[in-house]
């Protein structure tokens, strides 16, 4: 997993989680869903990069 992709994945997870929790506290369901989607995309990116690193070795 390259350092740049790892940072992007962690950032997406962190931002998505923050957006989701803030929107939930404010009662904004649409923004909460967008935060969840961003968090899921970050997790998917992380899994993809982990899989790529297994094939390299």
In short:
The chain is mainly alpha-helical. The chain has helices spanning 3-26, 29-56. Helix 1 (3-26) packs antiparallel against helix 2 (29-56).
How would you characterize the overall build of this protein?
This protein is mainly alpha-helical. 91% of the residues lie in helices and 0% in strands. α1 packs antiparallel against α2. The chain is elongated and about 45 Å long. The termini are close together.
How would a textbook summarize the main sheet? none
Report the sheet-strand fraction: under 5%
User: What is the total tally of β strands?
Assistant: 0
Number of separate helices: 2
Give the tags.
mainly alpha, elongated, about 55 residues
């Amino acid at each position: 997993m390259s350092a740049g992709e790892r940072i992007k994945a962690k950032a997406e997870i962190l931002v998505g989680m923050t957006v989701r929790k803030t929107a939930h506290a404010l009662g904004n369901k649409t923004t909460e869903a967008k935060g969840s989607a961003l968090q899921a995309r970050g997790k998917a990116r992380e899994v993809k990069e982990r899989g790529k690193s297994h094939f390299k070795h």
